[in-house]
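Internal ticket #5521
Category: modeling
Description: The requester needs a full-assembly model to guide mutagenesis choices. All entity lines are attached below as received. Residue total reported by intake: 1075.
Assigned to: D.W.
Attached entities:
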Amino acid sequence: MRPVSYSRVRDVATAIATVTADAGAAYLAGGTTKVDMLRIYAEASQRLVDINDLPIDHIEVQPDGALRIGAMARMNDVAMAPLVMERFPVISEALVLGASAQLRNMASMGGNMLQRTRCTYFRDAEASCNKREPGSGCDALTGVNRGHAVLGTSKHCIATHPSDVAVALTALDAVIHVQNTGGHHAYPIDDFFLLPGGTPQREHPLNHGDLITAIEVPALPVGRNSLYLKVRDRESYEFALASAACALRLENGVVAEVRLALGGVATKPWRARRAERALLGQPATRESFARAAAEEMSDAVARPMNEFKIELAQRTMVRALETLAARGDVS
Amino acid sequence: MSTAIGRPVDRVDGLAKITGAGRYSAEIALPGLVHAVLVTSRIPSGRIGHLDTYDAERAEGVLAVLHHLNLPKGGSVPALLPSLFGAAASGQTFFPMQDEVIHYAGQPLAVVVADTLDRAEHAARLVHITYEHTPAITTIEQGRDRAYEAEKIFAGFIPGRITRGDAAAGLAEAAETVDLSYHLAANHHNPIECSATTAVWEGDRLTLYDSTQGPNATLHTVAELLNIMPSHIRVVTGYVGGSFGCKAMIWAHPALSALAARAVHRPVRLALSREQMFSGCGHREEQEMRIVLGADRDGRLTAIRHHKLSPTSHFDDWAEPSLSVASSMYACDNYEGVYRLIKANTMTPTFTRCPGEAAGMFVMETALDELAERLDLDPLEIRLRNYAETEPGTGNPWSSKGLRECYQRGAELARWSERDPRPGRERDGNWLLGWGMASSAYPVTPPGGPQRARARIFADGSAVVQSSFADFGTGSATVMTQVAADGLGLPLERVRVQYGDTDLPNTAAAVGSAGAGMVSAAVHVATTALRDQLIAQAVADERSPLHGADPGQITVTEGRMHLRERPDTGESYAELLQRANMTDAEALGTWNPPSMMGTGYGTMTFGAQFAQVAVDPELGLCRVRRLIGVFDPGRVLNRKTAHSQLMGGMLWGMSQALLEGTVMDPAGRWSNASLGEYLVPVNADAPDVLIETVETTDTVVNPLGVKGIGEVSMVGTAAAIANAIWHATGRRHHRLPITIESVL
């Protein structure tokens, strides 16, 4: 790998000041993606500022009932936190179904929000990739694109967003808290992840030196009846071909409240708002679920190798909704 | 008298492996060691336009950049000969970095040597290469119109067309036929340890620490490539982290490490990266097969026509022998097998776990299932009706065959007769359940020359047994300790086996499931020779209680020679040696195997497999719930390691069925060259696996009657799973792997 320098910081202000002052610097959290990116020359940081000592790893409930997850909380610690398992099983399940136990012990929640796509052309430093090297083209369009996105794509990029937990957080309207030398900013999660459009290199609104400090999940009673369904070739240690984060409340057999987001099929964690709208007030039947799922995917654009994802995503949504509906009217 | 053989003894090297104390070839610590990294071709076909080493040579820590313009020329590339022969065994008849022509993506174009691995990897990125592209063929689809019937395949050992009887006539008289076309994805081995060699020169003597299945194959291949005397090379193979065939033949990296070490006058380690493992040591080729089966009303086969089409390299007519075992599985007088090849821009394919057997038997065993369905016959019944009592083609008797017992026991364990044979009848929530079965078989092939071991006993009654074989994770060091202990009549803890070093007595590479049979033969011959020598010495020694006894009446227990009938009459090895003022005694044992060209017997390991699958047709998921395998491996040397190997093989088969496939990018290079993208099963995928063996005595194959279990259990697993998917869903699958999109 390229030569890099390394330093370790103990407080947030120093971390931000250090990285902001050096255009070649980057934060090093769990390192489970960052170090890979450097080794395969998909990123070019010259200096790593290790933030593992920062005191921003708490998982706690706020006075208003919101869940606040420190950016340096490890994936596994969040997944196993009793209050997360109880109030937001969808978060816990999405985490447990992601990566491997070893990676989850290391990887941070803030880092998870910034993990890079698994697109093989992005990761192949010599392939054409508009995300890695704007303007160079996109080999994925004509390449092996079974795993690529069918929603939110552009002619410049069809790379799938890889995160599972970001899908759950998107369904729950989480807020990403960010600090920089100018102060504090809060981004609704759906605004945090950007569509590729003509600028696939811009995946989020952060500027150099911005540090994610926390993720906040608003109090949401329906979160207790939620799940994460992940469809993939093997049982573990693989990214989703399609996944659904779903929370559902029924009243007298009618959908009273629903949250639905998709993973594995879109260029960002995909809030299925069209499906949600189509479901509200409808009877909790397979037919209305299928109609809503079809509505969500009606604008999907497939490539030859990933056409099945349009159907698979619908079936995944239907299964998630059916499973939650079968648990009865829980609120 | 056998006491150690067969026992479920723990691995002798288990603790060293688990604790990290065992050193693998890329972990050998040597003073002054430096690191070599390969620079490989991005394109599949063309020429190097310009190779610019300016930046690389000036990068920190760089000692040398070798390429076709400055690589010292050596000897010649040996013929492609399977390493089971024990001679040079080049994986392909091409050695890189001799000119500017590019034959395949991943072809080594330069070697960068630097003082640390990170610096060598960085400098490798600084070698700037421009290419002149020429059109490439890398898939069957691209080369279909250029296919040709091979004269011979598989290093010239197998004709491209094999016939017996008259297949056309047999099909014409058939009451029922199936005619099916299949596509099987290319596969890569993916052992957890990537291939690596550490090379050290002392004057004109070369030591290679090489991760291989055949240390002697490395020795002879490198000797020819570098044109140096075999006597000046020593190959040491300590711990090996798996192979699955990618370390069965010898590829470019051992010789390149030696050339690099000579160039920089330092010990050099060359370890392939995971990505380079996809283009540095062969693969199982993509293949299409078409099979036509004809049968009479009773399900007896009247004809088999089995054709294969696959890409090979520009250098060699290689195809894995996908038709071989399938052609010998069932009694059928009329057979036609044809191998067709396409010259493609890939490296030469190679042995990959169950080379040929797994692919060909998937086709045969799923096609037979479809034939059974058409004839309304039970899948097990159609196999019994075509049971081959003698070897098809030759009519030779089998050296041993317990297949009927395997079918019977497997069917009992699976409660086969209790299932509803109609498809799609059993459901568990969202899952459709189904059962399927298939036959397993794998040839028993003798090595190409004598196999040797040396046994040495010390005056305290402890012994060391030496042989050059490698233990690449199969447990051979452990089972050889057991064989040696029984041969000498010593307790296990008094025997040490030394192995993995070409300075020790010669063995061929442990490949083709032949390792246990051939090495155990050598160890058995050596240790019983030493035992007999000591018994003879006792009988001749006037001071021995055994003086004058009939050697045939003497046996050895726990290091003590005694009369079989009167155990109190005898003495220990230690007493005999000490009295004679001998510090040790030793014997060399040589086993001369039967001819590779035929023993007059059909020699195969057989088995029967049953699988239960659960299919979620809505989400396209297929999960294996249960695998049952019953095999007839002849003598089992260690029940524990045997069970592990058989279970591992069945999981390979599951992996073949549902997960594994290397996909060619339109740019002509493998698109999923990583363990993240090339899927192998994880623990969560592993089903409940039940394994039994049936007793078979084989006096033909080798002295201990070991038929080999390294690969047989992979054969048939994928077919049993595919047949079970049909039983669950009513749908047949003719492509491997069977993926979510094909099940949806």
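Resolution: model delivered.
Comment from assignee: The two ends of chain A are 52 Å apart (CA to CA).
Ticket closed.
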